[in-house]
Amino acid sequence: MGRRAHLIRATLACAAAVAAGAAAAGPQRVEYASGDGTLLQAWWFKPAQPSKGNVIALHGCGGLYSNRTNRRGEAMLSARHTAMAEFLVSQGYAVLFPDSLTPRGEREICTQRIGARRVGQVQRRGDVLASVSWLSSQSGTSPQRIALLGWSHGGSAVLAATDGNREDVSSQRVQPALAIAFYPGCSAALQSNYKPATRLLMLLGESDDWTPAAPCVELGRRTGAEVHVFPDAYHGFDSPSGEVRIRSDVPNGVRPGEGVHVGPNPAAREQAYARVKQALAEAFR
After folding, report:
1. Would you kindly state where each structural domain of the chain is located, as residue ranges?
2. Whole-prediction pTM
3. What are the E-state strand segments in 191-235?
4. How far is CA 277 from the centre of its chain?
5. 4-32 pLDDT per residue, tens
6. What is the pLDDT of residue 75?
7. What is the pLDDT of residues 243-280, one digit of tens each?
8. Residue 114's CB: how many other CB atoms inside 10 A?
9. Which of 27, 81, 214, 254 makes a 20 to 30 Å CA pair with 152?
10. How far apart are CA 180 and CA 274, in angstroms?
């Protein structure tokens, strides 16, 4: 079996499992071209009833998939993505998960130094803009009811794709009604004098030593974005399982070469999910 065929089979298996757990009508595999011509693969999860709106969910540097496999040896969506898909579908939203890494020959980029990555925010921004355009052209989808949500590298992609200073962003016919970023890297946005083209919500960990909260707090102060900083929370605080650990294989972070802390904080996760729920309801009134 070729790599592409294996990916399709593996993704279909994990997508079907997520949809079944969320009582959804079923996932739909879709493809569309990104700004650089890359043929993106994405999974569109829909609730059983007509959706209240669409959320484009953007994976972090670890990609869409976990290191776990099912009994047939097929890759599965990560626990974080599975949990968010189930949560959003249960609230009546459709969720689109574009894969920015696999079509470009990468499984993860967390262990790569930022300057050496072949998939950066230029590519991610193109993927997001293409996803918004594709969604807004689908029958039954209201262009005014599209939101972005991303984690870490995907959270930075949320910022990159909503910077009103950029012509490719400001010229988009459809702008998201809401942008939600879980622990993004905000230094680049600060340096570029980022101006949000839509309402922005950032959810941060106070103890995050991978993408620290301070630059995002400052970005929020400058732009008027809504910022929540959760105490005693590290990078990946919204993970539904596991425990805090040190990833020594990550070369980036506050102390390059010393590793970074990652892991859940159940209280912060519960509060963040509650704010996501409320913010989406407000944006899609």
Report:
1. 3-283
2. 0.90
3. 200-205, 226-230
4. 16
5. 334 434 444 444 444 444 444 457 889 99
6. 63
7. 999 999 999 999 998 999 999 999 999 999 999 999 99
8. 14
9. 27
10. 13
